[in-house]
Amino acid sequence: MAEYDFSRFSLLLVEDNAYVRNTLEDLLRSFKFSRVSTAVNGEEAIDYLKTMKQAGNPGPDLILSDLVMTPINGLLLLRWTRTAKDSPNRMVPFVMVSGAADREYVNSARDLGVTEFIAKPFSATSVYERILEVIDYPRQFVTTQKYFGPDRRRKEGSAPGDQERRTVKEADVTIVYSADKVVKATNPTEVWYWRLPNTLREKAASGLGGSNVKGELPAALLEEAEQQLQRASLDFSTWALEYLAKLADLCTEALMEPGRRSRHFGEIHTLALELRGQGGTFGYPLVSQIGKMLFDLTIEGCREDDNAVEMVKCHVDAMRAVLREKVAGDGGQVGQAVIRGLTDSIKKFQVVT
Predict the structure, then answer these.
(1) For residue 63, which of 118, 7, 14, 113 has the smallest C-alpha distance?
(2) Domain 233-349 is of which CATH architecture?
(3) Which position among 15, 31, 158, 349 has the lowest Cβ density within 10 Å, counted as fewest Cβ atoms?
(4) How many whole angstroms separate alpha carbon 353 and alpha carbon 350?
(5) Closest CA to 41 of 7, 60, 6, 65
(6) Residue ranges of the domains in the chain?
């Protein structure tokens, strides 16, 4: 198979976690993306895209964005990209990367017009495969009264709830072959299909015969990318221990300020999401497992009494044990003992007092 060249691509990476942002940027550059711009949150990304629009720049070829960020998260950035007049390219491929890969988040991103979704923890291969999916299998854009974005049906009839598009025959659809003017459907039965040239594959396959050629990255590049990710994992313990220290501080503050615990538990929930997303990426899937347990424990409306704070501390202690003992992979018997000890500790505090 022909070898793709990503050096002509421009890519915008949006990620609020500096450690993860740097890791992803290094990963993308190992794929030979030579033009990678970064933003620390959705607000900075929007400012960047507005500037490109004002300068007459068509914008990046691809956007990779985290989901949970402040003050503007990935979903709001996606909505702005798809709907704002200041967006330089409302049809740009948009790949969401998040540890919050639960159905609610995935469906929200899908309904706002996301192109692909990468769940954290990620690997070099999973990132590469999603990018390849965007290049090799671009979906036509669809406009209805309620939706604008990539066709949510990868196959005929595969998207439950898309009644308006399953029942409309192509003969009744307006088909457009240019992105110069994006219109909004004015009535419930009006549907537009936007079928545009595959410019991404034209760039990736430049010199290989044009947009009909399918390719892949050289195997050596993908192997080097995986090794790059493994090297990044050497710094994971330092980063993770800093997050665990923040969690411990939040527990102390929550015990001292009972009237403000909603704020404390909200921050704990966000930190748990980060740990849930990153652990497996950097060789500590047990951290991801325990991070998810803490994430589920601290969802909105959760208990906020003293025992709930103690349960958070149990999760912190368990993750510290994993890092201290360098329990990689599933940890075997040691990993099972950590999870069993955490479960037993939680049971002691589950009785509501």
Answers:
(1) 14
(2) Up-down Bundle (1.20)
(3) 158
(4) 9
(5) 65
(6) 2-137+199-217, 139-197, 233-349
What CATH topology corresponds to 2-137+199-217?
Rossmann fold (3.40.50)
* pLDDT tens string 91-143: 999 999 988 767 788 889 999 999 999 988 888 999 999 999 999 999 999 99
Q: How far is CA 45 from CA 38, 64, 66, 276, 334, in A?
A: 8, 11, 11, 25, 43
Could you tell me how many helices (H) and strands (E) the chain has, helices first? Answer: 13, 11
User: In sequence order, what are the residues at sequence separation of 6 or more whose Cβ sits closer than 8 angstroms to the Cβ of residue 137?
Assistant: 154
DSSP symbol at 170: G
Tokens 């360098």, located at residue: 326
Give the residue carrying structure tokens 């040691």: 334
Strand, helix or coil for residue 80? helix
Rounded CA separation 294/297 (Å): 5
Q: CB-hemisphere CA count at 13 Å for 185? A: 22
As a whole number of angstroms, the distance between CA 41 and CA 18 comes to: 11
Reduced DSSP (H G I as helix, E B as strand, rest coil) percent helix, strand, coil of the chain, to 5: 50, 10, 35
Is the pTM here over 0.90, yes or no?
no
- What amino acid is encoded at 124 in this protein? A
Report the amino acid identity of residue 126.
Answer: S
Cα 62 from Cα 10, distance rounded (Å): 7
Distance of CA 104 to the CA centre of its chain: 14
Q: What is the side-by-side order of every strand in the sheet holding 148-150? A: 148-150, 141-143, 192-194, 174-176
Q: How far apart are CA 24 and CA 33, in angstroms?
A: 11
